């Protein structure tokens, strides 16, 4: 490793004359070096060190590292407008970084979350100096991968992020009172009304926040099409290292983008998915310790990646399988030639009609039921089913949710203890026949692993908001619904069981549906309805979950990959 010079500050002008500032880290050595670029909105000094090594570590490996404040953040000039200027500014920054003193003219980008998004936008401008990117935990489609899931507003993550960005704006303006108020709110988010998710705090202190705009667009429309990075990437092709986490709220976007690029790219597309939540990336996530193998390998992996594609060093990456998935349960990495869809094995819902009253009354079985059944449960907006872990709540990860499963507004279906290990890889899909006595209602599906002691640790969940057509005179009739759960890679141990739980709320991860059909930005708790729902199973209504069952791995080791 090389010594690193003292950090420098450098500025550039965008095509419309706005000055953007960056910290630049140079190796203390002769010669020319490729550039690694990160563009971020949180003040460049942090440099995403919540999950990555400090830029000096990357510089010590022979790279000029540039950490830039995006427009209107940190000390950069201009007005911050969420994602709006990142295509042009990203392209201008890549072109500028390629001409820095000592640069070889080749640029790679890295970063997660917003810093992952800035990579996609910059790539969309097609700057010739950009040779590779390493996007982590991104929303390829901002509507379906970031703001809404299954048509339901992702309340806790969106509100928490909006408060964080508003606090940074207050800090930059020197508004101490607003900053302290928002700082306190970030640690105890104000959620006085689970239905009316308009934030009075943000209305007062951040009237221009994206949060209000996102609530004004509850359906996929032109706003989302214009803002999402996917619209700029149809002609983009370069080597990419895609990074995700099974409990990351944006895992859908990471996998969506990887699958599209892997299907059409002429360059290597590698995917690594750890057991992590959005942050941090370590061995302990939620209530589970996934062991030493889950420790963050991404920094060393990225150096190998950049050495391969920016320095033309044969690091052996091209001889390795391109997909590495951390398998929950075995706590090992699986190396695969691709992330292909596993065969879908149906497990049918069986019930005595009391599956909401006891976890002994509803079952999952490969054999379809011979008798019809109906499980009735009631959603009360006064006491909505709480979110426990998963990918959409904070804290995220896997927790024992057996106490939640005991509620009478949660319906559970559990397999018998497994006779042998079961391996899952991909998305589980719940296909449910259901009715409700309201024009609008929500369905939350959670897949859990049940241990002999009765504990039930969540593996994946999915969420769906159902709105009847305004012209539908009879909304309360039995219809099939499909809920796609968060993707997963897991070994379910022999002797344990699988459980599928359903509820009509998961608060505060998602805004509570008032049952009126009004969008979350126009609803209020006082109008919220008690909703009675029924889940049907049987030959006429074959409710089931399609599990992505895969073969047992031949080998699952990480050590050989990182040597």
Describe this structure in words.
By secondary structure, this protein is of the alpha+beta class. It folds into three domains: 1-136, Alpha/Beta hydrolase fold, catalytic domain (Rossmann fold), CATH 3.40.50; 145-224, alpha-amino acid ester hydrolase ( Helical cap domain), CATH 1.10.3020; 343-550, Galactose-binding domain-like (Jelly Rolls), CATH 2.60.120.260. It is built from 13 helices and 27 strands. It has helices spanning 55-59, 86-97, 114-124, 142-147, 155-173, 176-187, 200-205, 210-215, 222-227, 251-264, 298-310, 402-405, 559-562, and strands spanning 8-13, 19-25, 33-40, 64-69, 103-112, 130-136, 148-149, 152-153, 240-247, 269-277, 284-285, 288-289, 323-327, 332-336, 343-351, 362-365, 373-379, 411-414, 422-426, 429-436, 440-450, 456-467, 479-484, 488-492, 497-503, 531-537, 544-550. The strands form five sheets. The protein has a ten-stranded mixed sheet, with helices on both faces. A hairpin with a 2-residue loop joins β7 (148-149) and β8 (152-153). α2 (86-97) packs across α3 (114-124). It is globular. The model is unreliable at 556-563 (pLDDT under 50).
Outline of the structure:
The protein is of the alpha+beta class and 563 residues long.
Primary descriptors:
about 575 residues, alpha+beta, Rossmann fold, alpha-amino acid ester hydrolase ( Helical cap domain), Jelly Rolls, 3 domains, 9-stranded antiparallel sheet, globular
Tell how many strands the DSSP assignment holds.
Answer: 27
Number of domains: 3
The number of helical elements comes to 13
Mean pLDDT figure: 95
Under the CATH scheme, which class of the largest domain?
Mainly Beta
Please state the second-level CATH architecture of the largest domain: Sandwich
Strand order of the largest sheet: 1-2-4-3-5-6-9-10-13-14
Distance between the termini: 16 Å
**Major sheet:** 10 strands, mixed
Low-confidence stretches: 556-563
**CATH homologous superfamily label of the largest domain:** Galactose-binding domain-like
Percent range of helical residues: 10-25%
Shape: globular
Q: What would the CATH topology of the largest domain be?
A: Jelly Rolls
